[in-house]
Each structure stands twice: as structure tokens, then as C-alpha cells.
Design a protein that fits this description.
With 491 residues, the protein is mainly β. It folds into three domains: 99 residues, Immunoglobulin-like (Sandwich), CATH 2.60.40; 119 residues, Immunoglobulin-like, CATH 2.60.40; 225 residues, Rossmann fold (3-Layer(aba) Sandwich). Helices cover 13% and strands 36% of the residues. The strands form nine sheets. It has a nine-stranded mixed sheet, with helices on one face. The longest helix has 20 residues.
Length: 491
């Protein structure tokens, strides 16, 4: 009987379960609830100069009673309508540039933000915040280059840095003027931080300059006027922001811009007594009385006064000329600078005569010689080579004049030549044994003047490791210059 009762109860339970499976859930499904949106603060009260800067960081959050927040939409439309365009964002903070309208320095922006839930429903009552902003004018200053020349031919480079209390992105563009701020400005994009000006005609009285921004090798479409020849010039620049506010002018140091008057540039590399008159006189005797000059290592307060702002600009200065005559008693600086700045000059068929004294301090393994006819220097062990007073320099070409030293040169560095280079002069040198202090004629390599040929078969580089002005003992240096300038360089 008891077993029968258990069976009855089991069957009743099974029947109840089966019957209940046939019935649907009862009740009403709740509708999705819209999310709510909040800003960190709900009111900003500021007046006058106490307003916020144009760069504003805002924070917000949202919640959803029956789901979760997937993102937000915001707008700065003052009044929300069906035409309002919302911007989607998933983070809970962002920085905005809220610049006043052109010509205004204050504004009130209305910020609306609404949360979006996981069902795509947006908050029907977006959070709102009124943001009072005041625009601040931008700032700009010139920054120094490697060099800041006081004198230059019409190729100039300038650097600057601009800022804005409302954020760097608030700067819109720059206005540039040479000398006259009442003229029409030259406009440059806000991304430009340096500019190179290159005169289209370096022989003009007033230069029209191509403009190369940043490190570009392609000129801007527009040119700039206002740079004048043989007077002191200044560049003026100011920054303009999105609301039209202007910085005060940054004014460059004055630079005396020299007009190019000749195809020949004398590069004077002496820092003390210069032999420039020797070169001027001998060139004049050969018909070249109009010359341009640059004192390449002149210094004031430790800064070069005639070198360009950087090597690229200096190279463009050298490229204004067809012939460079470079004379110096500073081999280290001369070879180093010339190697870095004359590549385009030689590519464009420029020709150079270089007279540079090489002292014992010059590194014989230096790669500064790579661009010259010199492969290496002759530096015999325990021996010093000397050019005595009256010693001769003998040409390898009978059409060249014999030269004679006018003073004792205590250290001479003959040269081994690169392939394609040709010796022009060998010197009668004396060898001093540094151990025994005995003197004897030097019988080794004694080449001191050589030339190099370019790919067109023309002489484009003549170099002397002795100072040429000290080799006029026979008073025939005019003949030497004639051979170099006319016969070798084809002037």
C-alpha cells in the first residue's frame, strides 16, 4: 500500500511538470530605459579676463538602469534640432579648441552630450554646459641657427618657434615681411618652423626671393619681396590664431645683404693678417678687377659673422658663383667646411683654387680631404720637411712658371694624389732628421700643388698645400694665375 502511494505521488509530479512545460511565461516585458548623461560640473561662471582659455578639457559620464553605456554623442550647437549633427566618441573626456569668432576675443559655447546605451538608445535629455572662453593672442620668437650671420649674400635662413596659451593648434598661420610691415604680408602655414630665402637674381638691387619652407627643396608657389641689396635688412614675423588674434612682431637681427657683382668669390679663411690684397692685385692684373669676398672665419664674441645659418644655406651661397678662390692658414676648418658645402657647386660645374697651409696639427687620416685632389698626406716618420728661403717649386708642365719661396716654411706636407688627379708642382724640400737634427735634401714625394679633372674633362680643382702668396720670389705670380684662371678654368 505504501509503495502504491509513492507511485501515485511520482506520477502526479511528472504530470505537473509536463503540463507546466506547455504553458508560456506570464507577465509584461519592460521597455528599454534611456540612459542618463552627466558632466563633471553643470555650471561655469566666469567673467572678463577670468574666462577660460580657448583650449578647454571637458569630462562626462553616463549610466543606464537596464543595460550599459557604449559611447557618447556631443555637439556645440546652441539649440538642438533635427538638423543637429552629433559627433560620436567613446571616451569620457576630451580637449577642445573653442576659439572666438574672427575679430572677437570672447565667446560662450554651449556643449551638449548624450549617452548611448547597448541597444542604441540615446539620452533624450542631453547634459548641457555653457563654456565662457576668452581668446589669448599667440606668441612667436626667432630661434638661433648654427650661425647667425651679420653679412651675407642674398641667401638667408631663419628659424622660429610659436606658441599659444589656448593650445598650439590654435595658431593658424604666419605673416612675414622684409623691412616694411605696411607691405602685403607673405603667408606661411602654421606647420612651418624655418624658411630659406633665395634671391632669383643675386645681382639685382632689390631681390625677389624664392621661399623654401622647413627642409623642403621645392620652393613655395609665391615669392617674397622687400629684401634690398647693400643695406641692413630685418625680417618681421607674427603669428595669427583661429580667431584672428595677432602676436606681437618677432624681429630678426639685422643682416647686411651683399649684392653679387662677380662670378669670382674670394673666400678669405685668415683670422689675423690676411693676404687678400695679394689675390686682388694678381687677379686684377689678369683682367678680373671686380670680385666678391667673404671672410669665412671672422668672429665676434665667439660667433661667425659671415657664415650662413647652416651648411645647406652656405652651400647655396657658394653656388651663386662660378669660381671660388679659397685661401687660409687653417686647414682643419677650411677643409671641413668646404667638404660639407661645395658638393652642389662642383656638380654645377663650379671651379676652385684652394691655397691652404697644412700644419702639423692636421690629422693625416682625416676624411676632410675626400673632395679634393688629395688622397693622403706625406708624413715621414721622425722627419720634418722644410721649404727653405729661396727654394724652388718646379712645374711638371713646361708652360707653367717656376715659383720660388719668399720665406721659410717650417712644416710642409707633400701630397699623394687621388686617381684622376695630376701633379702641377714639386718643391725642393729639405729633410730634418728629428733625432739627429741633421739636414739633407728630401728625395721622396714632394708634390705640393695638384689639379683634378671633372667628368667633363675640365680642370675643376687646383690645390696648393703651401700658401701661394709666399711663392712669388721670382715676381711671376701673375703668370701662375693666368695659367690657372684662363688655361685651366677657361675664364
Amino acid at each position: 500500500m505504501r509503495i502504491q502511494l509513492i507511485h501515485i505521488i511520482f506520477f502526479i509530479t511528472i504530470a505537473s511538470v509536463l503540463f507546466s512545460c506547455k504553458k508560456e511565461f506570464e507577465g509584461t516585458l519592460n521597455a528599454n530605459q534611456a540612459p542618463n548623461t552627466f558632466t563633471i560640473i553643470d555650471t561655469i561662471i566666469r567673467f572678463g579676463d577670468d574666462r577660460l582659455t580657448s583650449q578647454v578639457t571637458l569630462n562626462w559620464w553616463g549610466n543606464d538602469a537596464d543595460g550599459f553605456i557604449v559611447g557618447y554623442e556631443y555637439t556645440f550647437d546652441e539649440i538642438i534640432s533635427d538638423a543637429t549633427i552629433w559627433s560620436y566618441i567613446e571616451i569620457q573626456d576630451s580637449t577642445f579648441i573653442l576659439a572666438p569668432a574672427q575679430g572677437e576675443d570672447t565667446a560662450n559655447y554651449v556643449f551638449h552630450i548624450r549617452a548611448i546605451d547597448n541597444d542604441g538608445l540615446s539620452d533624450p535629455t542631453p547634459a548641457q554646459l555653457v563654456i565662457p572662453v576668452k581668446n589669448s593672442p599667440p606668441t612667436i620668437v626667432f630661434t638661433p641657427g648654427i650661425n647667425n650671420p651679420k653679412k651675407s649674400f642674398p641667401v638667408l635662413k631663419y628659424y622660429w618657434g610659436a606658441g599659444d596659451p589656448d593650445g598650439e593648434n590654435n595658431v593658424e598661420y604666419f605673416q612675414l615681411y622684409f623691412n616694411d610691415t605696411t607691405a602685403s604680408p607673405y603667408i606661411l602655414d602654421k606647420t612651418v618652423t624655418s624658411v630659406l630665402f633665395h634671391a632669383q637674381d643675386a645681382t639685382a638691387d632689390n631681390f625677389i626671393c624664392n621661399v623654401f619652407s622647413n627642409a623642403s627643396s621645392i620652393a613655395e608657389e609665391e615669392t617674397i619681396n622687400g629684401l634690398s641689396a647693400n643695406v641692413w635688412n630685418k625680417l618681421y614675423i607674427r603669428a595669427i590664431d583661429q580667431s584672428g588674434a595677432m602676436s606681437t612682431f618677432a624681429i630678426s637681427d639685422s643682416v647686411f645683404v651683399k649684392q653679387v657683382t662677380s662670378s669670382i668669390l674670394l673666400v678669405d679663411g685668415y683670422t689675423a693678417t690676411s693676404p687678400i690684397n695679394f689675390y686682388v692685385d694678381n687677379l686684377s692684373e689678369n683682367g678680373f678687377s671686380v670680385l666678391d669676398t667673404i671672410k669665412i672665419f671672422e668672429e665676434i664674441a665667439g660667433a661667425y659673422t659671415q657664415q650662413s645659418a647652416d651648411n645647406i644655406t652656405q652651400g647655396k651661397v657658394f653656388n651663386l658663383f662660378d669660381i671660388i678662390i679659397w685661401f687660409s692658414n687653417d686647414a682643419n676648418n677650411s677643409f671641413s667646411l668646404a667638404q660639407k658645402t661645395t658638393n652642389d657647386f662642383f656638380i654645377d660645374n663650379g671651379k676652385m683654387l684652394m691655397s691652404v697651409y697644412i700644419s702639423s696639427s692636421f690629422d693625416p687620416l682625416s676624411n676632410f680631404l675626400d673632395f679634393t685632389p688629395i688622397a693622403s698626406l706625406i708624413d715621414p716618420s721622425d722627419t720634418t720637411l722644410i721649404l727653405d728661403l729661396g727654394a724652388q717649386l718646379n712645374p711638371t708642365d713646361v708652360d707653367y712658371p717656376v715659383l720660388q719661396g719668399t720665406s721659410i716654411v717650417g712644416i710642409v706636407k707633400p701630397i699623394a694624389l687621388q686617381p684622376g688627379a695630376t701633379e702641377l708642382y714639386n718643391a725642393d724640400l729639405t729633410a730634418k732628421n728629428n733625432i739627429t737634427l741633421e739636414f739633407s735634401p728630401w728625395t721622396g714625394n714632394s708634390t705640393v700643388i695638384a689639379k683634378k679633372i671633372n667628368t667633363g674633362g675640365e680642370t675643376n680643382f687646383v690645390i696648393s698645400t703651401l700658401e701661394i702668396q709666399k711663392l712669388d720670389g721670382l715676381l711671376n705670380m701673375n703668370d701662375f694665375f693666368q695659367k690657372i684662371l684662363i688655361d685651366e678654368f677657361g675664364l
